[in-house]
Design goal:
The complex is a heterodimer of chains A (about 110) and B (about 120). Helices cover about 0% and strands about 45% of the residues of chain A. Chain A is mostly beta strands. With about 120 residues, chain B is an all-beta fold. The relative contact order of chain B is 0.32. In chain B, strands 2, 4, 5, 6, 9, 10 and 11 form a seven-stranded mixed beta sheet that branches. A four-stranded antiparallel beta sheet of chain B has the order 1-3-8-7, with no helix packed on it. The chains are: A mainly beta (about 110), B mainly beta (about 120).
């Protein structure tokens, strides 16, 4: 059982906007701005797409954006494309004895 | 460009030990914190351990505390993970990942391709 809760799957048609939620608690997302998001294609290493809640690294498509409200972080993918089909993981710093926690991952399917 | 290459994985019996290595290139290794993150087959990501840029600060997930030890040799641009008393629950692909910062944690901005550890009798 992961410390952060993500939907198992989200799907959308090409061109649509989808949102992936990441729900934590008062020990992680609510109190820290160290929330990041990773994209992982099958058989590949994860890739950073969002850091510090909403910062997009150089080279990452501006179709990816993110935000945080309370103890929930969200990743938004706009203009959904076939190449966006992958697993997405959120991560956060936590004040518990385990320093960093991940969500269980969300499989994005492009219909 | 940043390049991280893990090695040392393999099949090991429960209770035995293994040492993983991660060779880094393309950046100033001794100014970045480094992590190990693992992924069990068909499962999600799990953070394992973090070491600061100078090796003075180390942090571990509860699941490996007391069994795993992270270290680094900045003269060799290499990160290590010493794993003792391995159990079947440690079976996973182990990734080496760079932190955006020198100490503490920000995000994992570069990842290696991983090395597979299989614990089985």
């Amino acid at each position: 059982q992961s410390a952060l809760t993500q939907p198992v799957s989200v799907s959308g048609s090409p061109g649509q906007l989808i949102t992936i939620s990441c729900t934590g608690s008062s020990t992680d997302i609510r109190h820290f701005n160290y929330v990041s998001w990773y994209q992982q294609h099958p058989g590949k290493a994860p890739k950073l797409i969002i850091s510090e809640v909403k910062n997009r690294p150089s080279g990452v498509s501006n179709r990816f954006s993110a935000s945080k409200s309370g103890h929930t972080a969200s990743l938004i993918i706009s203009g959904l494309q076939a190449e966006d089909e992958a697993d997405y993981y959120c991560s956060s710093y936590t004040s518990t004895s385990t320093l960093i926690v991940f969500g269980g991952g969300t499989r994005v399917t492009v219909l | 460009q940043v390049h991280l290459v893990e090695s040392g994985g393999g099949v090991v019996q429960p209770g035995r030990s293994l040492r993983l290595s991660c060779s880094a290139s393309g950046f100033t290794f001794n100014t970045y914190a480094m992590h190990w993150v693992r992924q069990a087959p068909g499962r999600g990501l799990e953070w394992v351990t973090l070491i600061s840029f100078d090796g003075n600060n180390k942090y571990y997930a509860d699941s490996v505390k007391g069994r795993f030890t992270i270290s680094r040799d900045n003269s060799k641009n290499t990160l290590y993970l010493h794993m003792n008393t391995l159990t079947t629950d440690d079976t996973a692909l182990y990734y080496c990942a760079r932190d955006k910062k020198g100490s503490g944690w920000s995000a994992f901005d570069y990842w290696g391709q991983g090395t597979l550890v299989t614990v089985s009798s």
